[in-house]
Amino acid sequence: MMRKAGLLLLLSILVGSPCFGQEWARKMFKDREHDFGTVAHSAKAEYRFVLENIYLEDIHIAGVRSSCGCTTPTVETPLLKTYEKGAVLAHFNTGTFSGQRGATLTVTIDKPFYAEVQLQVRGNIRTDTVLEPGSAQFPSIDQGVAYDQKVVVNHTGQSDWKILDVKSSNPHISVEAVEINRARGQVSYELRVHLDENTPVGYLNDHLMLVTNDSRSTQMPVLVEGRIVPAITVSPASLFMGVVQPGQKVTKQLVVKGKKPFRIMSISCDDQSFQFDTSKDDASKELHLIPVTFMAGSDLGKVTKTIKIKTDTSDAAPELAAYAVVAAAQ
Questions:
Q1: What is residue 6's predicted lDDT score, i.e. its pLDDT?
Q2: What's phi and psi for 140, nearest 5 deg?
């Protein structure tokens, strides 16, 4: 399957059509357009255009440029191996621009073949409403701990302006909008954002939606971001064993780390092609280095499994995805 994908990549380049010749690169992107909607001045507005290398060849992104200064793009991971994911981050410059804005982001790929992919962003930046700070940003929070954060919303020009409601699609995020000022055409609210103790582990990237009585734009997003850190972490978060041939063996290392000493009781996977060596790592300590060996079978294609780690603590057992690509010799 992967060998066929690699051949399709080569064929698409050789066809010679400018349209068809770029299609292999466009296929890697999950989406290629984003509308920020109406956002407040100085609000943090970012969008990640996610892409995945679906080919056998390594993909290298040489750079990305924007047609408008209203958007600053960056490449998060320039080099992507087979099935690795990356992103192009589009940052909407709400602090220095206003009004309806849009940009074309041109992503340049130079390996294994040259290609350009165009991404589109747009949005409306208001100047009469300002967020301080630009988002509800939570620090790295330990799992099981509740946390509160505040954002001030300042509005100028409409003396009867009101926040009627604040909506959240995340059940672990609640918010209260409290009016703190209304005088001389200035209206201010304090958003008291609460993150409960049951918020799951991982990165937090959600939006609150302000519902106002402004007929020109009744809704306005507020970014909520942060990270919930588990008591025991595993690095890398997903383990890619590489592209291997049938019968080939490859070994890589897992780093298992805790905030206090612990023992690893067992490491398991529902596929015998993954083996773990814990014979030299039975002590209680904060950092464990675990060799993981993958033995490729005869079936070609992608192998994806889940590795489960059991410790002597009451904390949730860490899990991670492990995968490899079995391909015939070229």
A1: 47
A2: -65, 120
- Taking Cα atoms as reference points, which of 4, 125, 111, 10 lies closest to residue 60? 111
How far is it, in rounded angstroms, from Cα 253 to Cα 136?
36
- What's the mean per-residue pLDDT of the chain? 90
CA distance 246 to 274: 14
In Å, what is the CA distance from 302 to each residue of 55, 79, 330? 11, 20, 17
* Model confidence band, residue 83 (pLDDT cutoffs 50, 70, 90): confident
Instruction: Let me know: does 126 contact 41? Beta carbons within 8 Å.
Output: yes
How many C-beta neighbours within 10 Å does residue 60 have? 14
- Coil/strand/helix, residue 140: strand
pLDDT digits (tens, 9 = 90+) for 101-115: 999 999 999 999 999
Q: State the pairing for strand pair 319-326/301-311.
A: antiparallel
Give the contacts of 182 (CB within 8 A, at least 6 positions apart).
159, 188
All structural domains of the chain, each given as residue ranges with its CATH number in brackets, are 2-125 (2.60.40.10), 133-229 (2.60.40.10), 232-326 (2.60.40.10)
Following DSSP, what letter does each residue of 291-325 receive, concatenated? EEEEE--S--EEEEEEEEEEESSSSPPPEEEEEEE
Q: Classify burial at 318, counting beta carbons within 10 Å of its beta carbon; exposed 0-12, middle 13-18, buried 19 or more.
A: buried
What is the Cβ-side half-sphere exposure of residue 115, based on CA atoms within 13 angstroms? Answer: 25
90/8: higher pLDDT? 90
* pLDDT per residue as tens digits for the range 160-205: 999 999 999 999 999 999 999 999 889 999 999 999 999 998 889 9
pLDDT category of residue 21 using cuts at 50, 70 and 90: low
